[in-house]
Amino acid sequence: MQALSKSFFNFFKFLDNGFYIRYIDSVIGYVRKDTFMTTIKDVASKAGVSTATVSRIINGKGEASPETIKKVMKIVEELSYRPSSVAKSLSKRESNLIALLIPNLNNPFFSELVQEIEHAANKKGYQIYLCNSEDDRQKVEYYLETMMDLYVAGAIINSLHVTEEDLSVLEQRNISTVTIDRAHFSHQYSAFEVDHVKGSYIATEHLIKSCNCTNFLFISGPKDEKSSNDRYKGYLNALNAFNGTHVKRLYGNFDIESGYVAIKNYLEENNYQEINGIVSSNDAMALGAIRAFKDKGINIPDEIKIIGYDNTNNGRYSVPRLSSVSQFNSKTAEMIITEIDHLKNIKKNRETFEISPELITRESTTTNK
């Protein structure tokens, strides 16, 4: 019991960011009044009954006089008491929580993914326990441990720092596991895999066939990131298929600043007129690149055309509006939650779902008139 209390102390201590607290408020089920939290003991003390009596009345179980029931329920309302769903999950060793482990929130794609999955989960009666690992193995280990402490119903994993052994441990604890872009593991679990080679291929094909681009830069994520390398492969395949010329691969970190810096540094050392097309591994870096070009007075799309990847909301409203490749949407999020639900309740066979990306064209690849 002492170890469990320590785990929960660390659980709340770790959540020092308002973004996480928004999720935990919806999950834990208590009312914060400044620093005061109403507990079942407060209700019992004011009503002059035991906590067991309060629990039975709230849950509609056991015997109690009409007067006692009325008195307890009135106090529950006065104190705005709500039973803790975490406490219930501990006693029953099950919960309606689905853990969502992501690499970071710097990339707008992940924040939008969280929103889509949370919406889909809520529609099926689940709540999301958000785990932002910030690409830190220590945080991943913390979150994996807490998932087991909270008896989550399922776990959605999108992290390079989760191993096959980690997934096996979750499965052994009866936590249904679904991965996103991690289907290359040999472990048998359900997976959602995006064909990133195809996604980057159709993006590059669009620039060559529809926009008459010939000489290209590729803005890549980190060298060891599989999805980024898959996109680079698709880009090269399209160049080979349609006689495009690869000029240089630039590296970023999937955020706006790294895209800006990559292009800024390139322009300081090279003549921008040697390129007329750019394929970016994600929208955030593409938007940073557009800003870097603008700062140098280079017009997008008149002089250089650029396409991103992820189809995030920011790209829909940027100037110019960003062409992109869509990989996840609300339908995909619903499929992920449905799979978790089926694994938990129907005990269905696990399977891999292949997601085909879609080209979205906007102003950043508008052809010259």
In CATH terms, what is the architecture of the largest domain? 3-Layer(aba) Sandwich
Shape: elongated
Give start-end ranges of low-pLDDT stretches: 1-35
Secondary-structure element order, N to C:
HHEEHHHHEHEHEHEEHEHEHEHEHEHEE
Q: Supply the number of helical segments.
A: 15
The CATH superfamily of the largest domain is identified as: Response regulator
Our count of domains comes out at: 3
Sheet/helix structural class? alpha/beta
Which CATH class of the largest domain applies here? Alpha Beta
Sheet with the most strands: spatial strand order: 4-3-5-6-7-13
Helix percentage? 40-55%
Number of strands: 14
Sheet with the most strands, sense and barrel status: 6 strands, parallel
N- to C-terminal distance:
72 Å
Write the topology of this structure.
Layout (H helix, E strand, L loop, with lengths): L1 H13 L3 H11 L3 E2 L2 E2 L2 H8 L3 H8 L7 H13 L6 H8 L4 E6 L5 H16 L3 E6 L4 H13 L4 E4 L6 H9 L3 E5 L9 E5 L1 H14 L5 E6 L5 H17 L2 E7 L4 H14 L7 E4 L2 H13 L9 E3 L5 H5 L6 E3 L3 H16 L6 E4 L2 E3 L9
Parallel strand pairs: 3-4, 3-5, 5-6, 6-7, 7-13, 8-9, 8-10, 10-11
Antiparallel strand pairs: 1-2, 12-14
